[in-house]
Structure to design on (507 residues):
């Protein structure tokens, strides 16, 4: 049986560039799709019960900042403790730390300068469910992402309080969530020491002016603007400054792409000739409205709206094509919330002629990168940033 | 009922893990928030279903299986079963791994 997407593509006669999405933004991956609410969250698109993996519906990605209640939830492990913020402690140590620290939440909040950054948090596997050919893993649509104002302290200052020895190579982060079986690798991630010391990397305790929701990492999580969500360790428990490359499963085996296949920061201490960790977000965009398949009234005012983002260079422009990619015209960019935030765009659609209107959107980064037309295959289904299209009906 | 029984060892282990993690960890979330009705996920009735449900359920909900079916064939399922045993420590004998592979490939290769 043909999927909705295949039908849509067949209807275009093959002249359309980009990939047409179903109206829910989730493509054709909906076989187990259902809205369900985790305690304290709004109804989200359930991708798995346990561990809880829930993505944000397209409609909830319309606001400039994604609501805490609607923000996506991603876990690898199923033992997820409720943490008492008053008795929580953050341990900082490691072979390249000059001294060990133990910090309470109050000490973290009062002992360092509090700073804010608006940044996109996007799962490395966002849109995996749209891959052709299909790849195994959580079959995310387009909603394993969101944009929030994160408040916390600079990781750099915390590390410097401990003292970073000259031989430091990586900083290793552990969270409080745990596996069911002792033999299952704990979720532990590392960053190159340079990235950990970058002024934008935060230990955050607030999201959009509120304490972090439980399911988004309370009481404190790492925020690594411009890098994929796997590094944004939730329920942060330990930080180790180390002179050697961390060799755990979640670095050496998982979250890797073919070496040299994608642009973006290199993680050289973790790189092999064959594979390398997925690192920075690639330039990308999302059409939020109208949804594919929408009917517009002929002659009525109609506007395309969406978001564009990249790994921190910032968005230079967003182009829209309504003729299958022959001509591109600039969309209007909305307010700039910072180089790590997504940028809203708008574009007035010509509704003067009845019939089908195929609309494609292509974002351009200030570093010169543009969204590609073709997917770069990789076994884990990361970095899907190909041009998106919606098919509209004017009547 | 069967599902609940299969999860008992998992809950016991979870308690051990938390017990060793220091004083500030609160109670763990129930592995399945009750209102989400995970028990509505049932795999196709075919030889090997009970074994597959019982073992896979230790660490994750069963919805992973139908949702991944479109990406799967026998070779990919074999890698997945191996990963669950060798990387994640899933308790499976060779014979059980073979039966689970036969069940998954026979019922969830291509079609959810």
């Amino acid at each position: 049986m043909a999927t909705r997407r295949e039908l849509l593509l067949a209807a275009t006669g093959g002249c359309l560039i980009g990939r047409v999405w179903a109206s829910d933004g989730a493509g054709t991956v909906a076989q187990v799709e259902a809205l369900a609410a985790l305690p304290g969250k709004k109804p989200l698109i359930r991708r798995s019960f346990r561990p809880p993996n829930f993505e944000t519906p397209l409609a909830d990605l319309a606001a400039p900042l994604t609501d805490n209640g609607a923000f996506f939830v991603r876990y690898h492990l199923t033992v997820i403790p409720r943490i008492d913020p008053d008795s929580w402690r953050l341990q900082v140590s490691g072979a390249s730390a000059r001294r060990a620290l133990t910090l309470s939440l109050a000490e973290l909040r009062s002992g360092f300068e509090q700073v804010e950054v608006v940044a996109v948090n996007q799962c490395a596997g966002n849109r995996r469910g749209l891959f052709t050919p299909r790849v195994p893993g959580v079959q995310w649509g387009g909603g394993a992402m969101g944009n929030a104002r994160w408040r916390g302290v600079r990781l750099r200052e915390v590390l410097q309080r401990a003292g970073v020895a000259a031989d430091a190579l990586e900083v290793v982060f552990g969270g409080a969530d745990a596996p069911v079986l002792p033999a299952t690798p704990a979720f532990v991630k590392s960053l190159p020491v340079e990235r950990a010391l970058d002024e934008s990397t935060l230990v955050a305790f607030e999201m959009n002016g509120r304490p972090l929701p439980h399911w988004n990492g309370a009481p404190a999580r790492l925020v690594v603007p411009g890098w994929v969500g796997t590094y944004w360790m939730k329920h942060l428990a330990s930080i180790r400054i180390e002179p050697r490359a961390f060799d755990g499963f979640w670095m050496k085996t998982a979250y890797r792409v073919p070496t040299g296949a994608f642009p973006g920061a290199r993680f050289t201490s973790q790189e092999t000739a064959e594979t390398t960790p997925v690192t920075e977000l690639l330039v990308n965009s999302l059409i939020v409205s109208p949804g594919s398949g929408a009917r517009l009234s002929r002659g009525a005012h109609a506007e395309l709206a969406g978001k564009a983002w990249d790994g921190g260079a910032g968005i230079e422009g967003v182009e829209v094509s309504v003729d299958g990619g022959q001509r591109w015209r600039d969309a209007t960019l909305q307010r700039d919330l910072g180089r790590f935030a997504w940028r809203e765009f708008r574009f007035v659609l010509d509704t003067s002629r009845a019939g089908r209107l195929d609309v494609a959107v292509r974002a351009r980064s200030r570093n010169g990168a543009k969204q590609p037309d073709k997917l770069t295959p990789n076994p884990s289904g990361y970095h899907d940033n190909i041009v998106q299209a919606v098919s509209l009906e004017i009547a | 009922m069967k599902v609940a029984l299969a999860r008992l060892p998992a809950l016991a282990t979870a308690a051990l893990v938390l017990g060793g993690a220091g004083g500030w960890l609160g109670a763990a979330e129930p592995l399945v928030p009750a209102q989400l009705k995970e028990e509505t996920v049932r795999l196709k009735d075919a030889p090997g279903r009970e074994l597959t449900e019982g073992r896979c359920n230790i660490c994750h909900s069963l919805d992973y299986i139908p949702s991944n079916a479109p990406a799967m064939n026998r070779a990919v399922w074999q890698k997945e079963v191996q990963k669950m045993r060798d990387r994640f420590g899933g308790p499976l004998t060779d014979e059980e791994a073979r039966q689970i592979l036969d069940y998954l490939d026979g019922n969830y290769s291509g079609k959810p």
Observations:
- The first strand of chain B starts at residue 25 and ends at 28.
